[in-house]
Amino acid sequence: MTDVPALPVRPWLDATRPVEERIDLLMAEMTLAEKVGQTHQVANIDPDADADAIAAGRISSSLYASGPTGGNERDEGVLVGNIDAAQRHAVERSRLGIPLLFGRDVIHGHRTVCPIPLGIAASFDPYIAEQIGEVAAREAVVDGVAWTFTPMVDISEEPRWGRVAESLGETPVLSGRLAAGLVRGFQGDDPSEPDRLAACAKHFAGYGLAAGGRDYDTVSVGENTLRNLHLRPFKAAVDAGVMTVMAAFNDVDGTPMHAHEHLIRGVLKGEWGFDGMVVADWNGVGQLVNAGVAADLREAAALAIRAGVDLDMCGGAYLAHLEELVRSGEVELGLVDDAVRRVLRLKFRLGLFERPYAARPGASNAPTPESRAVALRAAQAAHVLVQNDGVLPLDPSAGSVLLSGAFVDEGEALLGTWTLDGRGEDVARPGAALRERLGDRLTVADGRFSDVTLQQARRADTSVLLLGEHPSRSGEAQSVTDIRLPHGQLDVLRAVAGLGKPLVAVVYTGRPLDLSEVLDLADAVLVVWHPGVEAGTALASVLLGDVEPHGRLPMTFPLSTGHIPTSTHQRPTGRLIRADVDHEEGRYIDALTYPRLPFGLGLSYTEVDYAAPTASSSVLSPDGSVTLTVTVTNTGKRPCREVVQLYFRDPVAEVTRPLVELTDWALVDLEPGQAREVTFDVQAEQFAYAGRDLTTRIDEGDIILLTGPDSARLQSVTITMKKDS
Length: 725
Ligand code: BGC
Description:
The chain is α/β, with parallel strands linked by helices and 725 residues long. Among the domains are: 378-563, Glycoside hydrolase family 3 C-terminal domain (Rossmann fold, 3-Layer(aba) Sandwich), CATH 3.40.50; 606-721, Immunoglobulin-like. The protein is built from 21 helices and 27 strands. Helix 19 (516-521) links the parallel strand 15 (503-508) and strand 16 (524-527). The mean pLDDT is 95.
């Protein structure tokens, strides 16, 4: 292919013009083939093999990934030289010089890996999320990455589904606020700054409801539940300015999301006014054929462009068929124009036309003391103490400790799923970190359990057993039918517990597990997810009480696999209305239905007393607010960071509403003996919901506000919504 000389004047390069004008100017010059090229994304672009296609304007974007389910597969990393070489073909050889956009799954850190998203959610701290995003972006741009596919805001109530590890938990407000924090961190105020990436809220929508927790499976959900639950964190991400949204693999009530015109074009782009770009998931357009709603790739392309999918990830359907579909009149040119406009808007807003090449080439993006400090704070904040009979914190100057279990000397395994660029050698390992603190008082067993381990446990004053799941068991395409600990681990636990010595269980996991027996046998249990590069340091600091545990469970832990789903989404039914009656009189004849560990649970090394909440007014107008006050007192001997949680229940509404829903929380530091009045500014709009006709409404009538340390220990005050109050 011969090079076409560049146009003498490219007015869209004038950065002083408004973005929309630049888009108009550029689109006025584009051929249909060039427009279609802007809707095509490939994987792992090759600057040599793809040179001519790039120069011909046939490729818009490339992601770098190890494969279609890349979360747990390593690749060779992003080669910045390749990125810049490919970019040179686009910028210098293509007719219009439109830069390529490079994406990668930079999910919870790039080189400095922080806790998995479910662990980030356990922090209940949007500022931590923001810092994680900021550090990850700073490191990723060095490799030429301009766009990341996070945050994942799929509401997660299904622990069998491996992808809950990537999620921000089960509740819309927590998920939405943390997503907003991540978006701020990645994109900053101005995503065109060199250290920023475009973020992507995914997977739109309903993916968390995959039938049976089987990844990619069908989803049966009505639009009311979608609007009142699953769409809300997406809306929060859109409101926070997220630049892209990814379509989900699943269908919703029979319509695959890549063909869901109502939800993508109608709700996301129309109703919410999202002017960013919608990307397909990996071959999601092509998979419309597998789903049996398109006869071939051509039909799939037509369905997806109509639905509002702007960029075809790794499917090739648009590149192969859109041009002809427009020429034949089957697809309106306006639909392609809309997609191209959104792709270009993203590229202009990211500053790619001004700065197409990798920022800071040659700079190091290895973890630094500063980035590690963020990872450490995040990992500490993710530690959730779910049981403690007083064995923790360990006394740093007395007693011998045995550290055993599968993860004592693990590195990479503690990074978690989707850590494409993290390195095992950067991980502070639990054994080494505790050895540094305890010296000779610590014995570190090898990962294998044997009679030797048992003898070591017998000799030690306290055993710390590291249990849980390897990350290869969580993430994409990693669903399980049984959420008990992996094979063999309970045997080890039983054997060590049989010695009758103090026993601490530390659980590494990417999902809520059935911890019933662990809770029965261990004196203290810490759930730490997959914590990232500071795994060992964080663990040592929490076990020894340098830091008070302050994480909270972002998902309910059910009593058993058979109890799934168990979550705070439970709504009243006709027969059984109250949660307490419901649990005891039962939906099952062979078990109670209480959650084993409720949403929001997390202990500290002290006790906190909650007074009953009071409201500044007993009535609230639909556009007004009340102040809710609750006094919390640290009655113990150690400081703490308490997560004071505010839930509500709408007892009479047009549709069934959750028995409790988290609506706000406050992180409150308390010294021993200290009491603090915590106030919440409660806005009427927090109680808005989609009614039967799916429009948003705020009803008159009672609202029960509930405060407490978790979703199961709540005290209430009732206020009344009333017009003209
Ligand atoms: C996953 C996405 C991911 C994409 C690109 C897909 O298989 O579902 O979450 O961002 O691959 O790697």
